[in-house]
Write a structure and sequence with these properties.
The protein is an alpha/beta fold. It contains 22 helices and five strands. The protein is elongated.
């Protein structure tokens, strides 16, 4: 770390009302851009989140703050008149991305980046395919990005506070990264370095001993306390385990390897023009060494882990890194002539906007093929009967769908069974184990008296396309359903349904 705040002057000259006004404009503009352009399509865990959001008022994911935050937003916004039963989830994505962008600009200015380059870098981030995508769909990556940016902006803004108060604030802010995504724990070294950088920019001399033996242990202790508290909240006890994260990693990582296509899609295309700004800043040696070090300590461990994990996410797993990329990109030198700088900025933002819009359109074209105009929702409503509305409803289905029923039918959630099939294919095929795992949940729903349950059968031609072992498992499942429940068979618009009830005691 440098002993002098080498880039503080621009921040001092431009601090105050203008920066606050620009941050607010970025926030409001992002709300309008993302809110007006929110998409019906779901991606990855969006199906799970929409399921839990409708099915339960208390379900907690292992990224623990996401669902409670969405429910809180829903409770706040629903009385304003919206009939959208997924409003809280949608609003969380939009508001998170908007908050993260405002914090990115504020953090850049706190570091002393000039206002124009900081604004252009933030706008490039706003229009990037990654953030634009996750700000307009139900997923948690925009919320994680917001936590990364909010924590960093808070630590940098408080750089002139007394040391103890500043460290206490950092200890409160850093665990937010874990609360929004378990990978937040990996950012630890970066936030220790960021705190030290903030102290230097606040006028102190860098102390390696205090950084290693005071700042690091305090941030680690705050993280461990939050991890243990989250596990206790999830009824896992006061432990330091990551509550299912490692099992998820084991199940999805096997056999995956990074290739050039993965790097292109997850990093290069996902952030687009930000890479050009960063490259220009590095070639011009415009990035202070201490800023580069802090950014690398934050980004490299996270990037290394997700490159090893190699699970495609449209850049979502790298969304937190995008914040640090934007900070460094804000150091890009610009032409001195206002006309030249404006022209370059317009071309750059235009190209980034085109790239972001193109990637959104490509995904929407794929999703549009699953839109049947509400035909399936109407059929499911008929199959469930008039009690839908007074009770919640669950729809069991094997056929994979991009458009689960909760998007189109209020009060009903889809329980997709195809996700669970691979674990029971053996050899030998464990149809009984599969049925037991699924039908226990069905029995609990029906026994509560608060749920309707329906099973949607696959059409014969769809079933015939599946491997023989999968067909055998499905047939075993249907036999177990008939054995354990009272089944009413229905045919609605060429779709087959079984309405399930608990058997009456003899």
């Amino acid at each position: 770390m440098s002993s002098a705040p080498r880039s503080e002057a621009p921040r001092a000259n431009g601090a105050g009302f203008a920066d606050a006004a620009l941050a607010l404009l970025l926030f409001v503009g992002a709300l309008l851009l993302y809110g007006c352009g929110f998409r019906a399509s779901l991606f990855d865990d969006g199906e799970v989140f929409s399921h839990y959001f409708v099915a339960s008022d208390s379900q907690v994911w292992y990224h623990v703050v996401y669902l409670p935050a969405a429910r809180a937003l829903h409770a706040l916004l629903a009385p304003l008149g919206s009939a959208d039963h997924l409003l809280g989830l949608k609003a969380l994505s939009v508001a998170s991305a908007a908050l993260g962008l405002a914090c990115t600009f504020a953090a850049s200015r706190s570091l002393g980046c000039a206002r124009g380059p900081a604004l252009v870098a933030t706008l490039c981030l706003a229009l990037s395919p990654c953030l634009w995508f996750f700000a307009t769909t139900i997923e948690l990556h925009a919320t994680h990005f917001a936590s990364v940016a909010f924590a960093a902006a808070g630590i940098l803004a408080a750089r002139r506070w007394p040391f103890a108060a500043h460290l206490a604030l950092a200890a409160l802010l850093f665990p937010l990264l874990y609360l929004t995504h378990n990978s937040g724990a990996i950012y630890g070294l970066g936030y220790v370095a960021l705190f030290a950088l903030a102290r230097v920019r606040g006028g102190e001399r860098f102390s390696l001993a205090r950084t290693l033996f005071v700042v690091g242990p305090v941030l680690l202790a705050s993280l461990l306390l939050v991890i243990a508290s989250c596990n206790a909240w999830r009824s896992l006890g006061w432990t330091l385990g990551l509550g299912g994260t490692f099992a998820y990693i084991d199940s999805w990582h096997a056999g995956r390897a990074v290739d050039l296509v993965f790097l292109r899609d997850e990093l290069l295309i996902a952030e687009g023009a930000l890479w050009l700004l960063l490259l220009r800043a590095l070639l011009a040696r415009a990035v202070p060494k201490e800023e580069l070090l802090a950014a690398l300590l934050a980004a490299l461990p996270v990037a290394g882990f997700f490159l090893w994990f190699a699970f495609p996410s449209r850049g979502g797993y790298f969304s937190g890194i995008a914040f640090f990329l934007a900070l460094l990109a804000a150091r890009c030198p610009w032409p001195r002539a206002p006309l030249g700088a404006g022209l370059v900025a317009a071309l750059l933002l235009g190209a980034q906007g085109w790239l972001g819009a193109r990637e959104l359109q490509r995904y929407e074209e794929r999703f549009a093929s699953s839109d049947d105009g509400g035909e399936r929702a109407r059929a499911v409503r008929v199959a469930l009967g008039p009690r839908l509305g007074a009770k919640r409803a669950a729809l069991l289905a094997f056929e994979p769908r991009l458009r689960p029923i909760q998007l189109d039918l209020r009060g009903c959630v889809e329980i997709p069974l195809h996700h669970r099939v691979p674990a029971f294919l053996g050899p030998p095929i464990d149809a009984a184990g599969f049925s037991g795992a699924v039908l226990q949940q069905v029995e609990e729903h029906l026994a509560s008296g608060e749920w309707l349950v329906c099973y949607e059968r696959m059409a014969d031609e769809s079933l015939a396309a599946w491997p023989a072992e999968v067909r055998e498992l499905i047939q075993g499942f249907e036999g177990e359903v008939r054995a354990r429940f009272a089944v009413e068979e229905l045919r609605v618009e060429e779709r087959g349904f079984w309405r399930l009830e608990l058997r009456s005691p003899p």
